Amino acid sequence: MATHITDECINCGACEPECPNEAISEGDDKYVIDPNLCTECVGFHDYEACQAVCPVECCIPDPGRRESEDELYQRAQKLHPEKPWPAISALPTDQSRFRKNA
Question: What is the domain partition of the chain in residue ranges?
């Protein structure tokens, strides 16, 4: 599922530069995440970078958009064709929260 920014956002902007996909932008009243660009940091981190830096914990999973690790990984590959991507089965544990505790 893509990450979503709730109305508790204080517009501090801490999340925006942390997104490896440039999915976060400043909206009218709060920062917003483009769900078509969000990969939940799969392929980059074993955590969601926006969640890690948000001082008010308003970056949360979007319950209306559930996606598998494979779907998120495929999106990351499309967004970053210049990056050498391993097969998903060889994805290191530090590049996907799905594998963190596996």
Answer: 3-95
